[in-house]
Design a protein that fits this description.
The complex is a heterodimer of chains A (about 600) and B (about 100). Among the domains of chain A are: about 80 residues, Alpha-Beta Complex (Penicillin-binding protein 2a (Domain 2)), CATH 3.90.1310.10; about 325 residues, 3-Layer(aba) Sandwich (Beta-lactamase). Chain A has 22 helices and 19 strands. In chain A, the strands form six sheets. In chain A, strands 2, 3, 4, 5 and 8 form a five-stranded mixed beta sheet that branches. In chain A, strands 10-9-19-18-17 form a five-stranded antiparallel beta sheet, with helices on both faces. Chain B has about 100 residues and is an all-alpha fold. Chain B has one domain. Chain B is built from two helices and no strands. The longest helix of chain B has about 55 residues. In chain B, about 0% of the residues are buried. The chains are: A alpha+beta (about 600), B mainly alpha (about 100).
């Protein structure tokens, strides 16, 4: 060791001594204390670690749910209900989005000024709004079904506690004119009446849904689950022609008012396809505001009510007899001076006449003639025709609540019943059935199915009588509208028409009353039938009650206007209408 | 070995970056989609309102009222109508959209 090294060693030792002399003597903590402290800190750490492991892997459901609730939302995608349109696509029922404003009155904090501003936007008075708020309810609508723009302006006032919700409202542009056919929807867009009800499955959509992530501003960031798209409802095209519908309604309403009648119905069928081009009933209602509507006004009488048709049945009796070869159009029938006694009962004609040909039985609507012809055939033969043209079975138009009418099996017919049924008593029909049955005369013997839905393809009919028979009856129907017939007032300028009147006493609870149903079913134009039109006026009480003078003029004005609207070429000169001299009308009973 | 690792690392970085861009792209497209859907809904609403308006304005009752009252139109009386026969060989109906009921 050198001297220098030894010196360095000494210096280092001195420095060491100096340094250690400055520090306090002994350890800072005693060893056991340090251990306790360390242990405590480690335990706290372990608790934290354990908790975090627990939350992360074991009990993670709750927090994940909470997290999702703050960032993900279930949104409903509203489904649009399909429109109902007429045969040309003009809307008869449309859903449009509207909004409703609602509040929890307790949570609403609006200053009077704000309330006044809101009232101004909603086009009402602040008093009206406060009245709504003061009503003893937890929940109040301040406005229902308002235009989205109005709701937007109301929400722009930023009134605390004011909420909006989306809804659809159904509008019916046709109002009372098409009310019975279209029907209406009730709560939650469910069809309640008419085609809205029967076509619910087709019209109604299914709302879709999507689960989304939103950011803190509330914007949708992305879809998290598969989107369930909303299934929009489909549009429904009816067979109705809006123009004819309006025409039918207008004329019917005027006639019911003029005759002081209880009710009335009118049906226009396309003779070739069986489509219902118009179907009007009076009384009616406005489907857009149904506050004070009675069940009575809601009934689609042409389909849901039956009546004893009266003489409008006679052409079917005659057609059956012609088919069976029992009579020919010019066979003479002795009408017994207008009275025929069958068992205990006697049937009458309203006017006395000598022997009539079969053609004249229709033309003059002779009950005795029809009864005698009917009694010359087995009941089953008559029943077969009545049943084949659709009496006693629902017309299957797709309308809810349509009735079948009553046609008893032939086995139960007594002779007097067979006689009365030949002129339309003892059985009941609805107006659509009756109009449909006349398609056999318009279509050379083919019965067409009736429908309220637009059909694009030609529909196959079912032959019921021979074309020759149909043409013969058609000629008789034309005679009935000419002087000497029961319905000269049914004539139409410029067109040949034919039809049969009905003047039936009403049967209520098995008793015949002194009220009548005046009806007329006709075909036009006769040279190439396009339309079958049936008119029914229930309980005319302005003095007159004959089918020819009550229902005939309605037929005439509707048919004339309808044929012009449809552009059907004239098949007669415009001066073809020949009215009999006053006082010489041929009247009928039933 | 190191070289393979470096290649893999670069690949990884590339993948990560493309993930970031495609994520961004997806969000952007989603926002656009949402906007377009809202637009479509608005058009649908407008279409509904317009067709409602159209059918309300076009109701036959209103048309007739205006024709009668404002335009003073009236139906030609039978005495003032002349029916013209269309000569054979000329189509009786103006060209329309096929058979069926003309409008």
């Amino acid at each position: 060791m050198t001297a220098a090294q030894a010196r360095a060693g000494r210096l280092a030792a001195a420095a060491y001594a100096r340094a250690h002399r400055a520090a306090p003597t002994g350890p800072l903590l005693s060893r056991p204390r340090a251990l306790v402290l360390f242990g405590a800190l480690a335990a706290l750490f372990a608790v934290l670690l354990g908790r975090s492991l627990y939350l992360q892997w074991i009990d993670n459901g709750f927090l994940q749910e909470q997290g999702a609730a703050r960032s993900s939302r279930q949104l409903e995608i509203p489904a649009h209900r399909g429109r109902i349109v007429d045969r040309f696509g003009d809307a008869l029922a449309i859903s449009t989005p509207v909004k409703s404003l609602w509040v929890f009155p307790e949570q609403l904090s609006a200053t009077p000024a704000e309330l006044a501003a809101l009232a101004k936007v909603l086009d009402t008075t602040p008093q009206h709004l406060s009245a709504r708020l003061q009503a003893d309810d937890d929940f109040a609508f301040l406005a229902k079904g308002i235009a989205p723009e109005t709701a937007e302006r109301a929400m722009a006032l930023r009134i605390k506690g004011l909420n909006e919700q989306n809804e659809y409202r159904r509008y019916y542009p046709g109002g009372e004119v098409t009310a019975h056919i279209v029907g209406f929807t009730g709560d939650k867009d469910q069809g309640q009446e008419g085609m809205e009800l029967s076509q619910q499955a087709w019209l109604g959509g299914a709302p879709g849904g999507r689960r989304v992530i939103i950011n803190r501003r509330g914007d949708v960031v992305e879809d998290v689950a598969a989107v369930r798209p909303a299934l929009a409802g489909r549009d429904l095209a009816l067979s109705i022609d809006s123009r004819l519908q309006y025409l039918a309604f207008k004329e019917l309403k005027a006639a019911v008012a003029a005759q002081k009648a209880k009710a009335g119905s009118l049906v226009i069928l396309d003779a070739h396809t069986g489509e219902i081009l118009a179907l009007a009933n009076v009384p009616t209602y406005n489907p857009n505001s149904r506050n004070k509507v009675t069940r009575d006004a809601m009934r689609n009488r042409a389909l849901t009510d039956t009546f004893e048709p009266g003489s409008t049945m006679k052409p079917f009796t005659i057609a059956t007899a012609l088919e069976a070869g029992v009579v020919k159009p010019d066979t003479l029938i002795h009408t017994e001076a207008g009275q025929l006694t069958i068992g205990p009962a006697t049937i009458h004609d309203a006017h006395r006449a000598g022997p009539l040909t079969v053609e004249q039985v229709i033309q003059k609507s002779s009950n005795v003639g029809a009864a005698k012809i009917a009694l010359s055939m087995p009941a089953a033969t008559l029943w077969k025709t009545f049943s084949a043209v659709g009496f006693g079975t629902p017309p299957a138009t797709g309308f809810p609540g349509e009735v079948s009418g009553r046609l008893r099996p032939a086995k139960s017919w007594k002779p007097i019943e067979q006689a009365t049924m030949s002129y339309g008593h003892g059985l009941s029909v609805n107006l659509v059935q009756l109009a449909r049955a006349y398609t056999i005369f318009a279509n050379d013997g083919e019965l067409k199915p009736v429908t309220l839905l637009k059909s694009d393809a030609a529909v196959a009919g079912r032959p019921v009588i021979k074309p020759q028979t149909a043409r013969e009856v058609r000629h008789m129907l034309e005679l009935a509208t000419q002087p000497g017939g029961t319905a000269p007032q049914a004539q139409v300028p410029g067109y040949r028409v034919g039809g049969k009147t009905g003047t039936a006493r009403k049967n209520e609870h098995g008793q015949y009353t002194h009220q009548y149903v005046a009806s007329f079913v006709g075909i036009a134009p006769l040279s190439n039938p396009r339309l079958v039109i049936a008119v029914m006026i229930d309980e005319p009480s302005a003095g007159d009650y004959y089918g020819g003078s009550v229902a005939g003029p309605v037929f005439s004005s509707v048919t004339g206007a309808a044929l012009r609207l449809l552009g059907v070429p004239s098949d007669a000169p415009v001066d073809n209408v020949v009215l009999p001299p006053p006082g010489s009308d041929v009247r009928e009973e039933t | 070995m190191t070289r393979v690792n470096i290649v893999l690392l670069l690949l990884l970085i590339a993948c990560a970056l493309s993930l970031v861009t495609s994520r961004h792209q997806a969000r952007r497209l989603f926002v656009e989609l949402t906007r377009e859907q809202a637009q479509a809904r608005a058009y649908e609403t407008e279409y509904g309102q317009l067709s409602l308006e159209q059918s309300t304005w076009g109701m036959p009752a209103r048309v007739e009222k205006i024709a009668r009252e404002t335009l003073h139109m009236q139906l030609a009386l039978p005495g003032r109508v002349e029916i013209v026969e269309v000569p054979a060989g000329v189509s009786g109906r103006p060209a329309g959209d096929g058979p069926g009921i003309p409008r």
